[in-house]
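Work Package 4 report. The design task specified in the project plan requires that, given a folded chain encoded as structure tokens, an amino acid be chosen for each position. We show below one input record used in the internal validation round.
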């Protein structure tokens, strides 16, 4: 399968128009709508999200888990509005970096890219360690094979590296295949659980009273629901490589969010119904269960227990592959524009992949992952949980910046719509305020108490880099986010040419 995909991608290199700002180019128009949906959906890692975030949300949401995830779905849709509106005008590998540059200026765009790259770097580091740790635990428990986690992580990262550097099309096809398998497995489990739940089935789970803390408990549970949607916008980084990008990227962002949102709500209902959380005794048992989905499989379909573990392994790998491809394109865009060393903007002449950025992200993930595991531990959630918290704080800040940028970008646009371009982004900012506080609030256990300070340190380092650019190369700040606007044929015939660009 891999060889076939590589050959197909190589053939396209000879026939497909490509994008550049000097030297080799990214292949233009090689990706389809399903390809883009696959990337966003894989970054969200829906199976891993329900496995890890359902138990995390349960103490607050209780039997109201389905309502909490429904509320998170609505809150995420408010943020998705900004991504969709921008992607119609600015399809770019820079994603939020490009969006905010055009909305709030080069300085704000620089900081957005700085934070967004940091966020996805943290996700990549955590996934590098989690992939090896999860596979190690599975091989040890099921096959008595004690292979060191770091060897397994290096093998899996090697596969990710080969796929990402040789063919983005092959990468997203692998993501689509793995994603389809893992979601199908969990959906089958969900259907079986609901069918056998009997009196466990009730719409009471969609009412605030299903939570022991009422509306407050639902809201706290929704925090973990919102965290489950982080990465929904990842398809936006494929804007320069997607056919009919101004139409397909917004559709991909909305499609991925809608598909995974429905999956989350269905699985939360299947979990609460199958566990019969309307029974106080079952609810008490559920709150003490760290692995409720395997418990559900043992109760209703024991033949699925090991399949669920395999689906989780594949889900982690799929997420790592998608995060790698998303983060390297943001790094590539910043290097191409000169906001970071221009070497990062280099593209392979034969494979048309941003190879310098791929080398960088791969190297950072390996080195940082091994060092952090020596400090925090090598379990499935040790590095993964901590780096995930760091990345989540950074990416929520990016989402807030994008909402602010949307308001300003359309302030004087003839197509400005008050509902889409003012009310919805303001509501999105308000919806993100509490999750941001919850993840970065003071008083958390070590090392999570370091999260807000490390994010602040990264911002300070970004400020130093920004001041250096402004003093030594102010023209780079002016050019931030504009490479696509000047080079993309699709936009030349659109309205971007007349849209204002705010200088930073």
């Amino acid at each position: 399968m891999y060889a076939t995909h590589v050959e197909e991608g190589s053939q396209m290199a000879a026939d497909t128009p490509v994008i550049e700002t000097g030297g080799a180019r990214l292949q233009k128009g090689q990706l389809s709508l399903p390809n883009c949906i696959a990337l966003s959906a894989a970054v969200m890692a829906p199976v891993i999200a329900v496995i890890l975030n359902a138990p995390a949300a349960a103490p607050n949401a209780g039997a109201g888990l389905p309502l909490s995830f429904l509320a998170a779905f609505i809150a995420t849709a408010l943020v998705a509005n900004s991504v969709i509106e921008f992607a119609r005008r600015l399809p770019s590998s820079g994603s939020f970096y490009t969006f905010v540059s055009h909305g709030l200026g080069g300085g704000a765009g620089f900081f957005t890219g700085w934070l967004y790259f940091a966020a996805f770097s943290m996700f990549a580091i955590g996934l590098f360690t989690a992939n090896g740790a999860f596979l190690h635990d599975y091989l040890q428990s099921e096959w008595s094979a004690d292979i060191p986690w770091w060897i397994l992580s290096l093998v899996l990262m090697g596969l990710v590296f080969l796929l990402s550097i040789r063919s983005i099309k092959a990468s997203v096809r692998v993501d689509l295949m793995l994603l389809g398998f893992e979601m199908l497995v969990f959906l089958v489990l969900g259907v079986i659980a609901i069918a056998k739940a009997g009196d466990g089935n009730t719409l009471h789970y969609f009412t605030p009273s299903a939570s022991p803390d009422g509306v407050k408990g639902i809201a706290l549970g929704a925090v973990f629901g919102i965290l489950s949607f982080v990465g929904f916008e990842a398809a936006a980084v494929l804007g320069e490589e997607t056919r009919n990008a101004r139409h397909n990227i917004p559709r991909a962002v909305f499609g991925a969010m809608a598909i995974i949102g429905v999956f989350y709500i269905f699985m939360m209902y299947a979990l609460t119904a199958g566990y019969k959380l309307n029974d106080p005794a079952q609810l008490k048992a559920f709150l003490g269960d760290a692995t409720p989905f395997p418990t559900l499989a043992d109760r209703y379909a024991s033949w699925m227990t090991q399949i669920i573990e395999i689906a989780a392994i594949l889900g982690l790998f799929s997420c790592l592959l998608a995060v790698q491809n998303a983060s390297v394109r943001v790094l590539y865009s910043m290097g191409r524009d000169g906001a970071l060393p221009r070497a990062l903007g280099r593209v392979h002449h034969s494979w048309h992949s941003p190879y310098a950025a791929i080398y960088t992200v791969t190297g950072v993930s390996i080195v940082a992952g091994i060092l952090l595991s020596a400090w925090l531990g090598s379990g499935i959630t040790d590095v993964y949980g901590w780096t995930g918290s760091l990345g989540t704080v950074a990416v929520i800040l990016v989402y807030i910046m994008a909402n602010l940028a949307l308001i300003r970008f359309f302030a004087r646009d003839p197509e400005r719509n008050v509902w889409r371009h003012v009310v919805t982004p303001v509501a999105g900012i308000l919806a993100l305020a509490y999750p941001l506080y919850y993840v970065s609030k003071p008083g958390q256990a070590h090392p999570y108490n370091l999260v807000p300070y490390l994010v602040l340190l990264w911002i300070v380092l970004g400020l130093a880099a920004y001041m250096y650019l402004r003093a030594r190369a102010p023209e780079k700040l002016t050019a931030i986010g504009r490479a696509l606007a000047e080079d993309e044929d699709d936009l030349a015939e659109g309205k971007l040419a007349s849209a204002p660009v705010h200088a930073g």
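The chain is about 75% helix and 0% strand. Validation will be extended to a larger panel in the next phase.
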